[in-house]
Amino acid sequence: MEILAFGVQADEQPLLERAFAGHHEVRCLDVFLNEDTAPIATGYEVISTSVNADLDGRVLETLAAGGTRMIAQRSTGFNNIDLAAAERLGLTVARVSYYSPYSVAEFAWTLAMAVNRRVVRASTRTRDFDFRLDGLMGRDMHGRTAGVLGTGKIGEAFTRIAHGFGMRLLGWDIAENPACAELGMKYVPKEQLLAESDLVTLHVPLMAQTRHLIDAAALKSMKDDAILVNSSRGGLIDTAALVDELRAGRFTGVGLDVYEAEAGLFFLDRSLQAIEDDTLARLVTFPNVLVTSHQAYYTEDAVGQIIETTVGNVLDYTAGRRSENVLVPRS
């Protein structure tokens, strides 16, 4: 059987091909799955998609009509998939429920330290042989407060690093993580965490209950000199409200690896095109903001685990097995 994989990055393609070797053929496309590209999947029983695929009801209907029966998503998040429509159409859907939490946690810290120590500004200056220190002053993380919203595997990994810095630890989640509590984390209401934290980092999934978890009111409750980091999902932050606060001169730094309207932008080269998203265009102009293109997960370790699990999900489907990765079981 030949599998069609959408949204495959250049670094990812040889890994996918090697992983599927001896099991199935795989055809890799760099285009993302959406309403326009869905007809390409006609005749493919199994397809694989990336987190930026658009798997709404119309796309799923096109896939089902073309003979697709299984979707193997190469990500943990699945907010881009209409699961109810997939079940109605008899489509099996699986995801990657786990990969290296250190990849995302370490990158979240990379963003935090980059904005704290003005690394991008310093690098730009030195390329022009400007070696002044004016405007580059940062702060020690030691002794300051880290607020972790979401203390699952990634949040725990972030917390361990914060503990190593010697920070006071605050956490917020629907359930306490004993490993974080052992490190000295105190679980508090979200409002208290935002008000007391010098560094706020987001590690919760995007669901209806968490969309705009950081809204205008939450942003206003944060310290004026706080650092905000989001390496989870863009929809967790009300970006328009964030821009308003940045325009008011608030926050030491903001590090964003995700953006709520990133579909159609991230993972693509738009350097020769006009960006019609006024909010994003304004966001990247702030000197205390660093935006990266959803790359926190992008390490050899994590991508290797994602691909290994994806292959396993396809093999489970063909063998009629079901695992914890299945979101919609085979009918």
Give a description of the structure.
- Keywords: NAD, Oxidoreductase.
- It is an enzyme of class 1 (oxidoreductase).
- This is 2-hydroxyacid dehydrogenase.
- Residues 8-327 form the D-isomer specific 2-hydroxyacid dehydrogenase catalytic domain.
- There is one protein chain.
- The protein is of the alpha/beta class and 331 residues long.
- The protein has two domains: 2-99 and 299-328, NAD(P)-binding Rossmann-like Domain (Rossmann fold), CATH 3.40.50.720; 101-291, NAD(P)-binding Rossmann-like Domain (Rossmann fold, 3-Layer(aba) Sandwich), CATH 3.40.50.720.
- Helices cover 34% and strands 15% of the residues.
- Strands 8-7-6-9-10-11-12 form a seven-stranded parallel sheet, with helices on both faces. The chain has a six-stranded mixed sheet with strand order 2-1-3-4-5-13.
- Helix 10 (239-247) links the parallel strand 10 and strand 11 (253-256).
- The longest helix is centred in the C-terminal third of the chain and has 20 residues, at 300-319.
- The mean pLDDT is 95.
Mean pLDDT: 95
Largest pleated sheet: 7 strands, parallel
**CATH fold call of the largest domain:** Rossmann fold
Shape label? globular
CATH superfamily of the largest domain: NAD(P)-binding Rossmann-like Domain
The H-and-E topology, N to C, reads as EHEEHEHEHHEHEHEHEHEHEHEHE
Radius of gyration (CA) equals 21 Å
Strand order of the largest sheet: 8-7-6-9-10-11-12
> What fraction strand?
5-15%
Roughly what percent helix? 25-40%
How many domains? 2
Family: Belongs to the D-isomer specific 2-hydroxyacid dehydrogenase family.
Keywords: NAD, Oxidoreductase
Enzyme class: oxidoreductase
EC number: 1.1.1.28
